[in-house]
Design a protein that fits this description.
This protein is an all-beta fold and 755 residues long. It is built from 3 helices and 51 strands.
Length: 755
């Protein structure tokens, strides 16, 4: 933010910084891109998104003049130029200064779809009195003109030049966009001097297709650096520098005499230069108060920043109030962005779990309420440049925050999955917008945490049973990914030390209501020694992870078992009668109990095999003597042959009794057991027999969960053979095929070969 300076002594100080930079031969520059399709909300880059490719160069007035100024650039890979658009010179806020057509010879810029050898897709001549280039080569200086810093637009105590063009993403999920080679070329001091060339950074961007950006459940220790991403806390306003300083920026502790100017950052528990806690101080331009009172605008950085505290310990847009001087408060990173785009956070982690989904996120806030300068350098006291941060994994851009308005703290981030053997990764958050009037932001609560599945135990808490009866436990595993497929039941006598029961295995999840889900059961005959034992389920993405406490999940509610030595017998046939019938694909149960005295409740239990039952509902008794009649409709859709029974719970003696078993078969249920060709080369053949016609959905994904191919088919009653073709162009390796027919799901790992 370069605009409103409350203290006159800052002006020569800023000039000194500029002159020092010039004496070292440096010039602030950077290149970036904005996802126009998700400009205000942020997100991943997807096929058909529109990107605006920007290159920014800043020349202070000390440069005097620069000659023969021009920009040359190529299109990024996996994109095409946006039709019916233009080449532009824009301000740092994206306002167009000059607009040029793609055609050659009609104005100062040209686009060539297929440039000759040695030429570029794009060329823009820059300066006063520019005209058309002769060609798009580096050597051609025809039509290039002169820039006078401080006079040529955009005027910001010098001249800021930003070129822009727009492209449409044409690649598929899993492809990588590489920004095209770009060059900014000029001659300094004399028109006859050799060219000076500034090369753009060719950032890499993943084209993705994930729909869920943040974890519904997180688990474990946050492994982000800087005190778990919180930046620590303290009683002094300023903390020491970052473990990984921001490249190209200066760390300067915040005081009334050390303002956080462009290209600076600080780590504070109060964003006011005077450590004020009054958050409604005046908001106005050109504040000159040297020793402010409680309401003075001088309490605000540049008389326009918010006066706030950090975010740690909250989970909303408001965050914490600013910490009073000398009191404990949490720290946050505050950045006044420079023209150069660089990492604001970077960390290499070597302790990740393979084949595991993590959330990489942070809470960010735009703190500049007023900061705009127009193309002539006039302060408008409007909002200015909006922050835009990019999240990077192993050198590839994966997510953008979008342009962030002053809406308070906002959580931004995404999920990613490690490779099958991957344990190390480098993560970064990069400033992707220029400074020069706005783009001032704070960041806190960076998170790098596991996206854990939800484990729902049935029954819950304490379970009472009788010696000699079967005990049935089940756990429903729900996750945003289909990777937590390995499980083991565990038991403990103190809920601290756990051992496996030996009941372990692998399950195939089904995609239900936006989550991958399966149910795992266990059963055993109760003995007296079982009383006082705890049970839980442990799951993991691989067998290796299952035996690693840091890479497995056991967050289900623990079951505490009590076993009683009482007579648990099946009810006499004339005591309780149970019937089951099917209507609209649902099971309707009716029962009458002629001996209902002291009955507390009826537990409706369900089974798919007539052996292992789980409770689906508890119906309270409506009578303590005489007879009672009941009706219950199972809300779940019937799937083939299903068994039901009623367990009676009594008020006294912890006694349980069971009804006879009733069964019911839904003949409308799909029979679905496909046969799939494996391995495959250019197509996948699927053979299946359906009990009735329907729509079959097929999705092929890679081991990162990215969709490679998606097709739907009309399936007729009886045998069907269908093909998923057009796969010859994908890489060889392991893929997952997911099929859905009605309420039936099928998933199988397939191998793609090029033989």
């Amino acid at each position: 933010m370069k605009k409103f300076y409350p203290y006159n002594f800052l002006i020569p100080f800023l000039l000194l910084i500029q002159l020092n930079s010039l004496s070292q031969g440096t010039m602030p520059f950077g290149n970036s891109y904005v996802n126009i399709s998700k400009k205000g909300i942020g997100g991943i880059i997807e096929k058909n998104d529109t990107l605006e490719i920007r290159n920014t160069y800043y020349f202070p007035t000390a440069y005097n003049r620069i000659y023969k100024v021009r920009f040359l650039g190529n299109l990024p890979s996996n994109t095409q130029i946006l039709s019916n658009d233009s080449l532009r010179i824009i301000t740092n806020e994206g306002v167009t200064i000059n607009r040029y057509t793609y055609a050659s010879a009609d104005d100062a810029a040209t686009y060539l779809g297929t440039p000759p050898a040695g030429e570029y897709n794009i060329k823009i001549n820059i300066g006063t009195s520019v005209s058309a280039p002769l060609n798009n080569s580096l050597a051609d200086i025809t039509g290039a003109s002169t820039v006078t810093p401080g006079t040529t637009r955009q005027i910001l105590s010098g001249t800021l030049i930003t070129t822009a063009f727009r492209v449409k993403v044409t690649g598929n999920p899993g492809d990588t966009i590489v920004l095209g080679a770009g060059k900014f070329v000029y001659r300094r001091n004399n028109v006859l001097n050799p060219d000076t060339t500034v090369n753009s950074t060719q950032y890499k961007i993943l084209i993705d297709s994930i729909q869920t950006l943040l974890c519904p459940n997180v688990r474990g220790v946050n492994i982000a650096a800087e005190m778990g991403g919180t930046f620590d806390s303290g009683i002094v306003q300023n903390r020491s520098d970052l473990a990984y300083p921001i490249p190209g920026y200066n760390y300067v502790p915040l005081t009334p005499f050390n303002v956080t100017n462009d290209g600076r950052y600080c780590i504070v528990n109060n964003l006011s230069p005077y450590a004020s806690t009054y958050q409604n101080a005046e908001l106005k331009p050109n504040c000159v108060t040297a020793y402010p009172g409680i309401t003075s605008c001088a309490n605000r950085m540049f008389s326009s920043w918010y006066i706030i505290g950090d975010h740690t310990g909250t989970n909303n847009s408001i965050g914490n109030p600013p910490a009073p001087a000398g009191t404990m408060g949490g720290y946050m990173l505050a950045v006044n962005a420079s023209y150069a785009m660089s990492d604001a956070y970077r960390q290499t982690i070597n302790t990740l779990c393979p084949n595991t989904t993590y959330e990489f996120s942070a809470w960010i806030r735009n703190v500049c309420q007023r900061g705009s300068r127009d193309m002539d350098g006039i302060a408008t006291y409007a909002q200015g440049v909006l922050p835009n941060l990019t999240f990077v994994v192993d050198g590839i851009d994966r997510y953008s925050s979008g342009e962030m308005d002053t809406l308070g703290w906002q959580k931004k981030g995404f999920i990613f999955r490690t490779g099958l053997l991957q344990t190390s990764i480098t993560l970064a958050i990069r400033n992707n917008a220029p400074g020069g009037g706005g783009n001032d932001w704070v960041m806190d609560d960076i998170a790098i945490v596991t996206c854990s599945p939800e484990l729902i135990m049935n029954p819950k808490d304490t379970v009472t049973s009788c010696k000699g009866l079967n005990m049935f436990l089940s756990d429903t595993v729900r996750s945003i990914e289909n990777t937590y497929i390995n499980y083991c039941w565990q038991k403990s006598i103190d809920a601290l030390t756990w051992i496996n029961t030996g009941v372990c295995g692998t399950k195939t999840p089904a995609y239900i209501n936006g989550m991958w889900q399966y149910v795992v059961d266990t059963s055993f005959i109760n003995v007296s020694a079982d009383s006082g034992t705890y049970y839980r389920l442990q799951v993991a993405t691989t067998l290796t992870n299952l035996i690693d406490a840091n890479c497995s999940i056991n967050n289900s509610q623990k079951i505490f078992l009590k076993v009683y030595d009482v007579n648990c017998k099946v009810l006499e046939i004339n005591s309780l009668t149970l019937t089951a019938e099917e209507a609209n694909d649902k099971a309707i149960l009716r029962w009458t109990n002629s001996l209902e005295k002291n009955v507390k409740a009826y537990h409706v239990e369900k089974s798919s095999d007539g052996k292992i039952f789980s409770t689906v509902a508890i119906v309270n008794s409506n009578s303590n003597d005489g007879s009672g009649s009941y009706k219950f409709t199972d809300p779940a859709k019937l799937k083939g042959l299903t068994f039901y029974r009623i367990k009676l719970e009594y008020d006294v003696n912890a006694d349980f009794k069971y009804s006879r078993i009733a069964s019911i078969n839904n003949l409308n249920f799909f029979n679905f057991s496909p046969s799939v060709s494996n391995p495959f080369t250019s197509q996948i053949e699927i053979k299946t027999t359906a009990s009735q016609k329907g729509i079959l959905e097929g999705v092929l994904v890679d081991m990162w969960g990215r969709i490679i191919k998606k097709k739907t088919f009309n399936v007729s009653k009886g045998p069907n053979t269908i093909l998923i073709d057009g796969l010859q162009g994908i890489n060889s390796g392991v893929y997952i095929l997911r099929l859905k027919l009605g309420d039936n799901y099928f998933e199988n790992k397939l191998i793609k070969t090029n033989l």
